[in-house]
Structures are given as structure tokens and as C-alpha cells.
Amino acid sequence: MESMTVQLDQGSGGRATHELVQDLFIQSFRNEYLLEMNDSALVNVGNGQIAMTTDSYVVDPVIFPGGNIGSLAVHGTVNDLAMRGARPLYMTAGFILEEGLSLETLGEIVSSMAAAAREANVFIVAGDTKVVPRGKADKIFINTSGVGVVPPGVRVGGQYAEPGDAVLINGTIGDHGMAVLCKREGLAFENEIRSDSASLNGLVEKMLEVCPQIHVLRDPTRGGVATTLNEIAEQSHVGIRLEEEALPVREDVAGACEILGLDPLYVANEGKVLVFVPARCMKSVLRVMRDHPLGRNACKIGETVSNDAGRVFLRTRIGGHRLLDMLRGEQLPRIC
């Protein structure tokens, strides 16, 4: 870390975040669970395993097309558990409220949070509330923790990708980040861009039923698809090849990114999952994904290879190859 103060890009989910986590937090809290660097930790309890995760939500604006900070907090927590193949069960929720926040707004956020929990079939079983003076926060911040049970025989994690895996995604990329940014900046397009925020545990359960041998599940949130794939490539020591022609991007999202000078591959998602499966399982997993409401636009976007370990390349539409690195800098702050 070159700077002696915390910088905004250290919260981007990209290279600066990884350096902060590795150089400070991992060095201080070092243990076998943290070293895996997955979305949630698997710990042994009795004869089984549970998944544990925690997250904080500071999105601005707190209400955006397709959701709000409350539903987002549930979706993000549930998804972090589901990415280890776990069945989410329980959550906690801590609220930091700024003096002056409208009770109507708070009520809308809490109501959405409750509805999202019911839809995901999880219980919010404990919580905490703090109020800080005006100007000491930004309306509302939410911290969550989640616990889920891992079914026997399921072994999913960022370190398990193997050469020859097919890389799948359940739909279009960049929707959440662009929905939040357009709302924040007051940008209007012919069709409103809506967040893809959703709980993926139901979809994951269906995929694991037809292919318990799924190697990796990861939701590409901060830093987008490109940064998430770099994380997996490093964890599993494989190379990843993407096909630009196969990447699903909505026209309005692509247009907004072009106007703003952004790359959809680095824009956050909140209802998408990257799936690494053995090639023999690809067709059955894609079929299940496309039968689910959250996977109708599922497709293969690439594959893993044994060479170029730890690196991600994009084969462009004109046949060239472009190295995709982790996100550098903070192109979209306060996105989740």
C-alpha cells in the first residue's frame, strides 16, 4: 500500500481492495478460512458444515430502479452463502441511521428487506440499530451476517476450477451498476435500466441437483465479471478464455457504458452468477438455468485452460486477444 490514508478505490472490489485485504486484514487475522478468499467461509459443526458470511451496504442512492438498500442487503447476503453451495437459513441485520432520515423511506427499505427475506426463505433473527448525528453518515448503512447449511457432497469454491471447465452466466451483465449510476446522476434513457438484484439460492439449488460436481459459483458484484474471473483464475491457478461475441449485454446498458466511457465487464451485478462446470455437465446445467426465471438468458461465455495460469483473456469480435486485468481505480463508488 503506497498511500498512508484509505483511498476510495480500496472499496472498489478491484486490485486496490485485494492489496488492502491481503496486506492488512489477512496479515492480522490470518487463518485457514480467510486464506481461501471466498464469498463465505465453510466451518465444521458436528458432522456437517455451515457457511458464514458478512457484508455491509452503503449504496447511493438508497432507492434505485429494481430495488433498494434493504432488498439488496438480503440478496447480497443470501448470494454469498449460495456461492458455496449452501442453503441460506438465517441472517442478522445492523442499521446505522442518520438523524433526519425519513421514517417513510426507512419503512419502505425495511418492508422490501422483509419481502426479500421471505422470497429467499431466510429468517432475520437478530439485529441492532444505531443513530448518528446529521452529516455523520449518509441516510442509512446496513450490515448483515448470514448462516447456511452445506448439503453433503457439495464442494464449491473459487479454488476448484479445473482446465476444460465451461464458464457460464445466467444472464446480462452490468445491469445493477448502470441502474444505480443512472439514478444517481439523473441520466435518462428511452428504456429505464433496472437493477438485476435478486436472491440466487433457488437457481443454485436447481443447478446442483443436476450437477453436484459444479466446481465454482461466484456472483460478479464489485469489480464486475472481469475482476471476479481474475480472482478465480488466481485461486485455481488456471487460465480463462472469454468470447466477446458470447457476452450478454443489454443494448441500453451497452449504450450507457459507451456514453460514460465504462466497460460492462467491470460494472457490478447483483443477480448474476458465474458457473464453472465440467464440460460434460454444461448442457444439463444450461437447460436448468434457462428453465428458471433468473436464468432465461443463460449462456456459455468461455472456458478454462491449463496455460496462462492466473490470467484472463478476451477473444475479441475481430479475432484478437485482450488481457483482462482486475479493476484498477474506482469507476463506480457506492454501488452496493
Question: How would you describe this protein?
Answer:
With 336 residues, the protein is α+β, with helices and mostly antiparallel strands. It is built from nine helices and 14 strands. The protein has a seven-stranded mixed sheet, with helices on both faces. Strands 1-2-7-5-6 form a five-stranded mixed sheet, covered by helices on one side. The chain has a two-stranded antiparallel sheet with strand order 3-4. It is 31% helix and 25% strand. The protein has two domains: 8-150, PurM-like, N-terminal domain (60s Ribosomal Protein L30, Chain: A), CATH 3.30.1330.10; 166-324, PurM-like C-terminal domain (Phosphoribosyl-aminoimidazole Synthetase, Chain A, domain 2, Alpha-Beta Complex).
Entry keywords:
336 residues; alpha+beta; 60s Ribosomal Protein L30, Chain: A; Phosphoribosyl-aminoimidazole Synthetase, Chain A, domain 2; 2 domains; 7-stranded mixed β-sheet; 9 helices
The largest pleated sheet is described as:
7 strands, mixed
Number of helices: 9
Principal-axis shape: globular
Helix content: 25-40%
Order of helices and strands: HHEEEEHEHEEEHHEHEHEHEEE
**Could you name the ranges where pLDDT drops below 50 across 5 or more consecutive residues?**
none
Could you write a compact summary of the structure shown?
With 336 residues, this protein is α+β, with helices and mostly antiparallel strands. The protein has helices at 15-29, 32-35, 69-82, 103-120, 175-185, 201-210, 224-236, 251-260, 282-291; strands spanning 41-45, 48-57, 63-64, 67-68, 87-98, 123-132, 140-150, 166-169, 216-218, 239-243, 274-277, 299-305, 312-315, 321-324.
